[in-house]
Amino acid sequence: MGTRFNIPLTLLSLSCLCLLASAQLKQNYYAGTCPNVESIVRKAVQLKFQQTFVTAPATLRLFFHDCFVQGCDASVMIQSTGGNKAEKDNPDNISLAGDGFDTVVKAKAAVDAVSGCRNKVSCADILTMATRDVIALTGGPSYAVELGRLDGLKSTAASVTGKLPHPNFNLNQLNSLFAANGLNQNDMIALSAAHTIGFSHCSKFSNRIYNFTKSNPIDPTLNKQYASQLIQMCPKNVDPRIAINMDPITPRKFDNAYFKNLQGGKGLFTSDQVLFTDSRSKSVVNAWATSSQSFNSAFITAMTKLGRVGVKTGKPGPNGNIRVRCDAFN
Question: Does 65 participate in catalysis according to the annotation?
Fold first, then answer.
């Protein structure tokens, strides 16, 4: 018979549980409890976005970092306490901008200010809605969100290690990490394009402009003119707090310029540029650089799938609950 069906039962039951949970997510989940929740969240997000553009990339990145560690359960929001070092204090999460957290907290306060909605809507769902809203606010596609997540009951810094992509990843490393979350190569390429509105600290890519190899201090896949600009913006002893735009062309617009940048050797991270230099993903980059419609459609699919990763659903209980405060367990 061979071994192709020899899958550990624990893995099967885990994947079945995740499928069951994601099947319980649905659009208009709060129609009977807090029917205007989406417009309440949208207004709060718009207000925050008007105060600072950082709201958009910070919220989008927060959602991704949440979902890839123990699923989309707002565990990334939890503050560390004396007895517990939480996810947000893992080195991979230290650079998450405070404006992302603040967006969720403000949206939660707006929802809870409506009497029928108080403590009815999870922080995980608020983060999901807020993420959809910041994408639309920066010119990206709007889409219907599935809701019904519970907030997670644990958050540890240790659980983050090895779960998030790093700027120096190659295509195999990216694909295996995304596959572990039920996402395929096209989903990975689409989600990487979130870097169209992101920003980065110099340390995340300085190896590409100063010490790539002994014979080639500058990464040869990097556009020479772009490399010169990066060296000017990020001198060797730059203030570690300095951050630069990841999309040098349209940094405040969610668009397919990310893929055009890759075609021109202007991907900021190794993990961005590899999508064009590796023949296995190059054709998708070329297709989406040409068609924003195809990219938008793939991005919506990928975001919907991302929003289903490791969700906890059903009645509040040992699986999860609805937090009174997004940054603390009940």
Answer: yes
Give me the mean pLDDT over the 69-76 stretch: 98
pLDDT tier, 19 (very low <50, low <70, confident <90, very high otherwise): low
Report how far residue 83's alpha carbon sits from residue 80's, in angstroms, rounded to the nearest whole number: 8
Per residue in 185-242, pLDDT tens? 999 999 999 999 989 999 999 999 999 999 999 999 999 999 999 999 999 999 988 9
**Residue matched to tokens 């010490």:** 211
Which one is catalytic: 65, 166, 195, 201?
Answer: 65
Q: Which class for 62: exposed (0-12), middle (13-18), buried (19 or more C-beta within 10 A)?
A: buried
User: DSSP assignment of 108-145, as one string?
Assistant: HHHHHTSGGGTTTS-HHHHHHHHHHHHHHHTT------
Q: Do 225 and 232 form a contact (C-beta atoms < 8 A)?
A: no
| Contact of 316 with 153, CB cutoff 8 Å | no
